[in-house]
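Fold it.
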Amino acid sequence: MASRQGGSGDAEPLEPGSTDRWTASTAAPATPDSRHGDSKSRSRPGASERRRSRSYPYPGDHRLAETGEAAGDTVARTPEDPPLRDPGLYALTDHFRERLEQPGRYVSTRTVSDAIRRGQLRWNRTDGWRFALVDGGIRFVVVVGDTETNSPVVVTGWTEVADREAALAAPRWDAVDVDTIAVRAALSESAESPIPDRIRPRVVTRPFEVGDHRLETDPGDPFVRCTACGCRFRSKEAITSRRCRDGTSGQ
């Protein structure tokens, strides 16, 4: 069964890191899962270093300021404040819009909205805020920025296989969808390293795009192959460092 889901995001600009800490949003309940840690942590990161010199009130944000201002007064926001759960406040970067149109990506504007409303919220000291939502065995990760201003944005998004058996059983996905997500995530997680053993078990018969290349892989192959130029790749760095030219010999 072909995928009914258009567009996806991967981890090209931002990668999950060991400094991540998951925390429940003050605006909506978090959805715990084993990879993302304990959702009971509700401390706000960086509270002792909050900046009060800039004030960017959000519509409907009537929290009491730490200085004792009355509800409804201007409330300062900082990058450390948990982002709001209203998808209508967020714009999409050109970077993210471009990825919505590429084959083999599975993040859509609908999944972004669902992740912002219901996803688990993670703070990363280097990357800022991410929402993550598991649906049908697949984890959707949405990265947001400018959350201290009146114009927050969705920076990028991607998918990961959270539970392969659940994903294969879900009517939303077929086996090629699941293997495509697994291969793309593996390439991004280890961008500079060859990963033949993580590619070999996967079957991708509907090409997905990375850089200039349209990639697929057959069972047992330790590489992905560009359907246009025939190049063979074992790492993401190799893919993105070579332009696609028809008739180029494989590497």
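The two ends are 33 Å apart (CA to CA).
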